[in-house]
Design brief:
By secondary structure, the protein is an alpha+beta fold. The chain folds into three domains: 2-299, no CATH class; 309-425, no CATH class; 433-495, Arc Repressor Mutant, subunit A, CATH 1.10.10. The chain has helices spanning 48-51, 62-74, 175-192, 232-251, 297-305, 311-322, 326-332, 336-346, 352-369, 383-394, 400-412, 418-425, 433-446, 448-455, 461-472, 479-495, and strands spanning 2-4, 11-22, 78-79, 82-83, 86-89, 99-102, 109-118, 121-134, 138-143, 150-155, 162-168, 204-214, 224-229, 255-257, 259-264, 269-275, 285-286, 293-294. The strands form five sheets. The protein has a nine-stranded mixed beta sheet. The chain has a three-stranded antiparallel beta sheet with strand order 6-5-17, with no helix packed on it. Helix 6 (311-322) packs across helix 7 (326-332), helix 8 packs across helix 9 (352-369) and helix 13 crosses helix 16 (479-495). The longest helix is centred in the middle third of the chain and has 20 residues, at 232-251.
Length: 496
């Protein structure tokens, strides 16, 4: 079907995403082959079942079904009491059986929604269905450097890995919304622990459905599907390009055919591939080698009981229980690894001032030292070692300046705790009045101009005197004591 509009029409963009999620299981969806295929030599994680050899029988992976159930529940979907697997027939080199085991008319779950933030506002997009299937293999295309001839190889290690397809309603209205939806979806999947969500490894991919329609119209335009987009940046760029392409065609009086296109990162454009398939093209029929799934309500509730606290709920709890600002709570719940690290650092301490101190160090210095938030659990600075640093700050044994130095030492020396580092480097805070008063007297004598400036009413000059005193104390002075004694000495000079 093609759609034409009159030149000069104002358009509304309509976007729906089909998100493909590799589930984090030890074995494949229907056989015992390892699903940990990413760095394995080609075609080493295969067996007669995932190769589709004659006479073999698939067996449903229970862990994959439960991961799918957990995802559906987190999205507010209704898990259907009866669902089944179907054969989706098509022929492609990376599909060794000549068909894919998927779900068609009786999927696992239906009618959910995902809330996400974009532009400071909360948006809600519907979820049509969540269904299980198996992944395909992977085609590799290359060029022989000697002859310049192109050739293709196929690696079937990925064939049969458990895959979840989350089909969204066409509720998104901009490339920015699509990206925010996808990042929120990945955050949810990672919190649940059902997928790594690593797009660079193919664990999260999406097909984009996009069309334009006259603003105010209730009818949909011709849908263009952009297949297998595998990064957040690519999703946004592909949509920006495709929306503009369709607008140009329609403004010129042309028609948009319903088709499948691919995204070329190198060219920065979508490219036509084929006319869009419909369900009848796949000749779906029930999978004869697998029984229908009966979803016992008690089983569903057991799975619900194992679910991790979801990002939105955890964010609200951090604000309520620890007195954090919304912005800090949002940063700390971007990743389950970060949220777990934060609470492990507090170790049950619910004082708001301690929570804010921990949040500042984690979202500031630790984030800067650990760009990959998911790797925070592997940081040499464990929650217990960071807690030791915060204890020293709380006790007044070090100040913020020396804490920075101790922090860097903790990263470099994973076998040493904060107290030992302070002792070894002699970084203990100087809080003794007599020692600091002597240093203040020397600094005032050596810096007559800022003293004169301060006494003449230039209050900012005091900052130079505080800095000079802290430098003379090797950065180890108690700032509160330094300020108090400076005030006393300057007041004495003013009075004298």
């Amino acid at each position: 079907m093609a759609v034409m509009t009159a030149p000069g029409t104002t358009y509304e963009t309509v976007i729906g995403l089909e998100v493909h999620v590799q589930l984090l299981t030890r074995s494949k969806m229907f056989c015992g082959c390892s699903a940990d295929y990413f760095a394995a030599p080609p075609n080493t994680h295969v067996c007669p079942v995932c190769l589709g050899l004659p006479g073999v029988l698939p067996v449903i992976n229970r862990a994959a079904v439960e991961a799918a159930m957990m995802t559906a529940l987190a999205l507010g979907c209704t898990i259907q009491p009866d669902n089944k697997f179907d054969r989706k027939n098509y022929f492609y080199p990376d599909l060794p059986k000549g068909y894919q085991i998927s779900q068609y008319d009786l999927p696992l779950a239906v009618n959910g929604a995902l809330e996400f933030a974009v532009g400071g506002e909360t948006r809600r997009a519907g979820i049509t269905r969540v269904h299980m299937e198996e992944d395909t293999g992977k085609n590799l295309h290359a060029t022989d450097p000697a002859t310049g001839a192109g050739y293709s190889l196929v690696d079937l290690n990925r064939a049969g890995v458990p895959l979840l397809e989350i089909v969204g309603e066409p509720d998104l209205r901009s490339p920015e919304e699509a990206r925010a939806y996808l990042t929120t979806m990945r955050q949810l999947l990672r919190f649940l622990g059902v997928s790594t969500g690593n797009m660079e490894e193919g664990a999260l991919r999406c097909d984009i459905n996009v069309s334009l329609r006259p603003a105010g119209s209730g009818a949909f335009g011709a849908k263009v599907e952009i297949k297998n987009v595998n990064s957040f940046r690519a999703v946004e760029r592909a949509l920006v390009y495709e929306v503009e392409r369709q607008r140009r065609v329609l403004d010129a009086g042309g028609a948009i055919p319903q088709e499948t296109r691919g995204w070329s990162e190198e060219r920065g454009q979508t490219l036509g591939q084929r006319s869009k398939e419909v369900a009848t093209d796949y000749r779906y029929f029930p999978e004869p080698d697998l029984p229908p799934l009966k979803m016992d309500p008690a089983w569903i509730e057991r799975v619900r009981g194992r679910m991790a606290e979801l990002p939105r709920a955890r964010r609200a709890r951090f604000v309520a229980d620890y007195g954090l600002r919304e912005a800090d709570a949002a940063l700390l719940t971007e990743s389950r690894a970060v949220a777990d690290y934060f609470e492990a650092t507090l170790d049950g301490d619910r004082r708001p001032e301690r929570a804010r101190l921990a949040a500042n160090w984690i979202t500031g210095d630790l984030f800067a030292a650990t760009p990959d938030r998911e790797a925070l659990g592997d940081s040499p600075l464990t929650p217990a070692r960071l807690r030791g640093l915060l204890d020293l700050l709380d006790a007044g044994r070090i100040n913020r300046t020396t804490a920075k130095q101790v922090f860097n030492e903790l990263l470099a020396r994973p076998d040493e705790d904060a107290a030992a580092i302070v002792e070894r480097l002699g970084l203990g805070q100087v809080s003794d009045d007599a020692a600091i008063r002597a240093t203040v007297g020397r600094v005032l004598a050596e810096n007559p101009k800022p003293v004169a400036d301060f006494l003449s009413g230039k209050a900012a000059a005091k900052g130079r005197l505080v800095g000079a005193t802290m430098k003379a104390l090797g950065g180890r002075g108690d700032v509160a004591v330094v300020n108090r004694l400076l005030d006393e000495e300057l007041a004495r000079q003013r009075g004298g």
